[in-house]
Protein backbone atom coordinates (compact mmCIF):
# COMPACT_ATOMS: atom_id res chain seq x y z
CA UNK A 1 0.00 0.00 0.00
CA UNK A 2 1.24 3.49 -0.78
CA UNK A 3 1.38 6.37 1.66
CA UNK A 4 -1.95 8.06 2.39
CA UNK A 5 -2.45 11.51 0.85
CA UNK A 6 -5.12 13.55 2.71
CA UNK A 7 -6.12 16.53 0.56
CA UNK A 8 -9.28 18.07 2.05
CA UNK A 9 -10.66 18.15 5.58
CA UNK A 10 -14.15 19.63 5.77
CA UNK A 11 -14.91 21.46 7.91
CA UNK A 12 -11.47 23.09 7.88
CA UNK A 13 -12.41 25.23 10.92
CA UNK A 14 -13.91 23.85 14.11
CA UNK A 15 -14.98 25.47 17.34
CA UNK A 16 -12.93 25.20 20.50
CA UNK A 17 -16.13 25.11 22.54
CA UNK A 18 -17.61 22.18 20.62
CA UNK A 19 -17.37 18.66 21.95
CA UNK A 20 -16.52 15.87 19.53
CA UNK A 21 -16.20 17.10 15.94
CA UNK A 22 -16.67 14.63 13.07
CA UNK A 23 -14.52 15.32 10.02
CA UNK A 24 -14.74 13.90 6.51
CA UNK A 25 -11.24 13.46 5.09
CA UNK A 26 -10.75 13.05 1.35
CA UNK A 27 -7.59 12.04 -0.46
CA UNK A 28 -5.89 8.96 -1.81
CA UNK A 29 -4.87 5.49 -0.69
CA UNK A 30 -6.69 5.17 2.63
CA UNK A 31 -6.02 1.48 2.99
CA UNK A 32 -7.79 -0.94 5.24
CA UNK A 33 -5.53 -3.86 4.37
CA UNK A 34 -4.59 -5.54 7.61
CA UNK A 35 -7.51 -3.97 9.44
CA UNK A 36 -6.33 -0.96 11.41
CA UNK A 37 -5.72 2.58 10.22
CA UNK A 38 -6.00 5.91 12.03
CA UNK A 39 -5.77 9.66 12.17
CA UNK A 40 -4.59 12.25 14.66
CA UNK A 41 -4.17 16.02 14.91
CA UNK A 42 -1.09 17.68 16.40
CA UNK A 43 -0.12 21.15 17.56
CA UNK A 44 3.27 21.44 19.19
CA UNK A 45 3.59 18.71 21.82
CA UNK A 46 -0.15 17.99 21.91
CA UNK A 47 -1.56 15.11 19.87
CA UNK A 48 -5.24 14.16 19.80
CA UNK A 49 -6.03 10.69 18.48
CA UNK A 50 -9.12 10.40 16.32
CA UNK A 51 -11.99 8.17 17.40
CA UNK A 52 -14.73 6.52 15.41
CA UNK A 53 -12.43 6.22 12.43
CA UNK A 54 -14.28 4.86 9.42
CA UNK A 55 -13.26 4.24 5.82
CA UNK A 56 -15.87 4.71 3.11
CA UNK A 57 -13.49 3.75 0.33
CA UNK A 58 -9.82 4.29 -0.52
CA UNK A 59 -10.46 8.02 -1.06
CA UNK A 60 -12.73 8.93 1.86
CA UNK A 61 -12.62 8.41 5.59
CA UNK A 62 -14.34 9.87 8.63
CA UNK A 63 -12.90 10.52 12.06
CA UNK A 64 -13.97 12.37 15.21
CA UNK A 65 -11.69 14.65 17.26
CA UNK A 66 -12.35 16.06 20.74
CA UNK A 67 -11.38 19.73 20.28
CA UNK A 68 -13.13 21.23 23.30
CA UNK A 69 -10.77 23.42 25.30
CA UNK A 70 -7.81 22.77 22.99
CA UNK A 71 -5.29 25.41 21.96
CA UNK A 72 -6.41 27.83 19.26
CA UNK A 73 -4.69 27.87 15.91
CA UNK A 74 -3.72 25.59 13.04
CA UNK A 75 -3.25 21.86 13.69
CA UNK A 76 -1.53 19.26 11.53
CA UNK A 77 -3.43 16.14 10.43
CA UNK A 78 -1.69 12.76 10.27
CA UNK A 79 -3.34 9.81 8.54
CA UNK A 80 -1.77 6.40 9.04
CA UNK A 81 -2.51 3.42 6.81
CA UNK A 82 -3.05 -0.06 8.17
CA UNK A 83 0.53 -0.99 7.29
CA UNK A 84 1.83 1.84 9.52
CA UNK A 85 2.71 4.31 6.75
CA UNK A 86 1.80 7.86 7.89
CA UNK A 87 1.42 11.15 6.00
CA UNK A 88 1.00 14.54 7.64
CA UNK A 89 -0.92 17.44 6.10
CA UNK A 90 0.36 20.64 7.72
CA UNK A 91 -2.15 23.25 8.92
CA UNK A 92 -5.09 21.08 7.91
CA UNK A 93 -7.44 22.11 10.72
CA UNK A 94 -8.08 25.44 12.44
CA UNK A 95 -9.43 25.42 15.99
CA UNK A 96 -11.04 28.80 16.65
CA UNK A 97 -13.51 30.52 18.93
CA UNK A 98 -17.17 29.94 18.16
CA UNK A 99 -19.03 32.96 16.79
CA UNK A 100 -20.99 34.99 19.30
CA UNK A 101 -24.77 35.17 19.31
CA UNK A 102 -27.30 37.96 19.77
CA UNK A 103 -31.01 37.59 20.52
CA UNK A 104 -33.71 40.17 21.21
CA UNK A 105 -36.66 39.81 23.57
CA UNK A 106 -39.63 42.17 23.15
CA UNK A 107 -38.48 43.81 19.94
CA UNK A 108 -41.99 45.29 19.56
CA UNK A 109 -41.37 48.16 21.95
CA UNK A 110 -43.95 50.40 23.64
CA UNK A 111 -41.79 52.87 25.62
CA UNK A 112 -44.73 54.92 26.95
CA UNK A 113 -46.03 51.76 28.65
CA UNK A 114 -42.65 51.22 30.33
CA UNK A 115 -41.55 48.54 27.89
CA UNK A 116 -37.98 47.81 26.90
CA UNK A 117 -36.13 45.50 24.56
CA UNK A 118 -33.66 43.03 26.07
CA UNK A 119 -30.53 42.40 24.00
CA UNK A 120 -28.85 39.13 25.05
CA UNK A 121 -25.28 38.57 23.89
CA UNK A 122 -23.05 35.52 24.22
CA UNK A 123 -19.36 35.61 23.32
CA UNK A 124 -16.72 32.93 23.55
CA UNK A 125 -13.75 35.28 23.73
CA UNK A 126 -13.18 38.63 25.39
CA UNK A 127 -12.79 41.87 23.49
CA UNK A 128 -14.42 45.17 22.62
CA UNK A 129 -18.21 45.01 22.34
CA UNK A 130 -20.37 47.82 20.98
CA UNK A 131 -24.17 47.92 21.20
CA UNK A 132 -25.70 50.84 19.29
CA UNK A 133 -29.23 51.80 18.25
CA UNK A 134 -29.88 53.47 14.88
CA UNK A 135 -33.01 54.78 13.19
CA UNK A 136 -34.21 53.42 9.84
CA UNK A 137 -32.07 55.99 8.00
CA UNK A 138 -28.90 54.78 9.79
CA UNK A 139 -28.61 57.81 12.08
CA UNK A 140 -27.22 57.00 15.55
CA UNK A 141 -29.82 57.19 18.32
CA UNK A 142 -28.02 55.82 21.36
CA UNK A 143 -24.92 53.84 22.36
CA UNK A 144 -25.86 51.28 24.99
CA UNK A 145 -22.35 49.89 25.46
CA UNK A 146 -18.92 50.38 23.91
CA UNK A 147 -16.08 48.89 25.94
CA UNK A 148 -14.07 45.76 26.66
CA UNK A 149 -16.07 42.80 27.95
CA UNK A 150 -15.12 39.34 29.16
CA UNK A 151 -16.35 36.22 27.40
CA UNK A 152 -19.72 34.93 28.56
CA UNK A 153 -23.41 35.81 28.49
CA UNK A 154 -24.66 39.29 29.29
CA UNK A 155 -27.49 41.60 28.36
CA UNK A 156 -28.48 45.20 27.78
CA UNK A 157 -31.85 46.92 27.55
CA UNK A 158 -33.09 49.71 25.38
CA UNK A 159 -36.05 51.66 26.71
CA UNK A 160 -36.88 53.51 23.47
CA UNK A 161 -35.01 56.66 24.44
CA UNK A 162 -32.32 58.69 22.75
CA UNK A 163 -28.94 59.50 24.31
CA UNK A 164 -30.48 62.73 25.66
CA UNK A 165 -33.39 60.86 27.31
CA UNK A 166 -36.17 61.76 24.84
CA UNK A 167 -38.57 59.00 23.76
CA UNK A 168 -38.11 58.15 20.08
CA UNK A 169 -41.04 58.45 17.65
CA UNK A 170 -42.84 55.36 16.38
CA UNK A 171 -40.96 53.55 13.65
CA UNK A 172 -38.35 50.99 12.74
CA UNK A 173 -35.01 50.97 14.56
CA UNK A 174 -31.94 48.75 14.43
CA UNK A 175 -29.62 47.55 17.15
CA UNK A 176 -26.11 46.81 15.90
CA UNK A 177 -23.90 44.55 18.01
CA UNK A 178 -20.24 44.28 17.04
CA UNK A 179 -17.44 42.46 18.79
CA UNK A 180 -15.14 39.46 18.57
CA UNK A 181 -16.75 37.24 15.89
CA UNK A 182 -20.04 39.18 16.22
CA UNK A 183 -21.54 41.53 13.61
CA UNK A 184 -25.32 41.44 14.05
CA UNK A 185 -27.98 43.98 13.08
CA UNK A 186 -31.51 43.32 14.42
CA UNK A 187 -34.83 45.17 14.02
CA UNK A 188 -36.86 46.82 16.75
CA UNK A 189 -40.31 48.31 16.08
CA UNK A 190 -41.33 51.18 18.35
CA UNK A 191 -45.01 51.95 18.87
CA UNK A 192 -45.69 55.00 21.03
- Proportion of beta-strand residues: over 45%
Shape assignment: elongated
User: What structural class should be given to the helix and strand makeup?
Assistant: mainly beta
**What is the terminal-to-terminal distance?**
75 Å
Helix and strand sequence: EEEEEEEEEEEEEEEEE
User: What is the tally of helical segments?
Assistant: 0
- Which bin fits the share of residues in helices? under 10%
Report the count of strand segments. Answer: 17
Integer average pLDDT = 91
How would you sum up this structure, described in words?
- With 192 residues, this protein is mainly beta.
- It is 0% helix and 61% strand.
- It contains no helices and 17 strands.
- A five-stranded mixed beta sheet has the order 2-9-8-4-5, with no helix packed on it. Strands 11-17-16-13-14 form a five-stranded mixed beta sheet, with no helix packed on it. Strands 1-3-7-6 form a four-stranded antiparallel beta sheet, with no helix packed on it.
- Strand 8 (73-80) and strand 9 form a beta hairpin.
- The model has no long low-confidence stretch (mean pLDDT 91).
Give a quick rundown of the structure:
With 192 residues, this protein is an all-beta fold. Helix content is 0%, strand content 61%.
Amino acid sequence: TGAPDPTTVPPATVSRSAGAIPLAISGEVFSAAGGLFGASITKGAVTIAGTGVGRTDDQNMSVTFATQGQELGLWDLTVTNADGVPTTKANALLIDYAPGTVSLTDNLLRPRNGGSTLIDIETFNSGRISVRVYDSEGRPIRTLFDDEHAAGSFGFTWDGKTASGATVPSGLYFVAVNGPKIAVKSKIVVIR
